[in-house]
Structure formats: structure tokens, C-alpha cells
């Protein structure tokens, strides 16, 4: 029987890692492609609610993964605003 | 006391809705911007693991949201392959 924490951690690593290439591409090209600032706001609310949900379930893989996503959402939103005039 | 199902559903709607603009933009412009096909493969594994995790916890907001994400990952990967020569 595979432990649920193990599955949660593996899931969290995959979905967190998937955010990194877009972030690196943004830093390198100094522009945020393909995604509107509105999407980052919706994601910010969504991931924040997932953190709350994780706290309610007391499941730390949900909390840690979505807290990382919240930080990325805020960072990408700031970069989107910063590079706005260059896009 | 707010029910955890309510928070999970609200979280799931936000993160699912955030995928729609990128999808519509892709359909409209017939090209997949900013994200590599590798990212969709990683997301496919990540979201599939989240579905498994949701099944283990018996939490259907996790299952439904990530099942939707898996479908979107596959769709975007197919569109990425389809529009490859046009990018």
C-alpha cells in the first residue's frame, strides 16, 4: 500500500515544477506571454482557497504545494505589471 | 463554520477557470504560447497523482478539479503537437 503522503508529495512536486519553466522564461525574456493578469488574480484566490482547504483537512502536501503556487502567482503578477510596457 | 466541501469547490472552480483563457487563446490564435510540451507532460503526471491522492482521501473536490485539469493537459498537449509547425 502506497502512503497517501507519498502520492501527495509526488503530485505536489510535479505541479510545482511545472510553474518553473514559465517563470524562468519570463525572467529571461522580460515579458509574460500568453497569460493575462486577471488569470494570476483568479489563481491567487484559487490557490489561497486550496491552502485553506488543506488546513481544514490537515493535509500538509496540499498546504505546501498551494502555498508555493500562491507565491508564484504573486511573483508572476508583479512581473506582469513590471513588464507591462514591454509586452 | 464554513464547510470544507464549500472551500474545496470554490478553490476548484477558481483553479479550473484559470485554465480556460489560455485554452480559448490557443483555439483562437492556433498556437500554444509560452509553455513547452514538456510542461504539459509534467502537469499530466502531477494532476493524475492529485486525482489518486483525492481518491485516497475520499475528497471529491480534489478528484473532480484535477480530473478536469488532466483533460485540459491532454487537450493542450494535442493542440501543441497540432500547431507545432505553425509556432
Q: What would your notes on this structure say?
A:
- The structure is a homodimer of 87-residue chains.
- Chain A is mainly alpha-helical.
- Chain A has one domain: Up-down Bundle (Monooxygenase).
- Chain A contains four helices and no strands.
- The first copy, chain A, has helices spanning 4-17, 20-29, 37-57, 60-82.
- In chain A, helix 3 packs antiparallel against helix 4 (60-82).
- Chain A is elongated and about 50 Å long.
- Chain A starts with a helix and ends in a 5-residue tail after the last helix.
- The mean pLDDT of chain A is 88.
- The A-B interface holds A 4, 7-8, 10-15, 17-18, 21-22, 25, 32-36, 38-39, 42-43, 45-47, 49-50, 52-53, 56-57, 59, 61-62 and B 4, 7-8, 10-15, 17-18, 21-22, 25, 33-36, 38-39, 42-43, 45-47, 49-50, 52-53, 56-57, 59, 61-62.
Keywords:
elongated; 4 helices; 87 residues; mainly alpha; homodimer; Monooxygenase
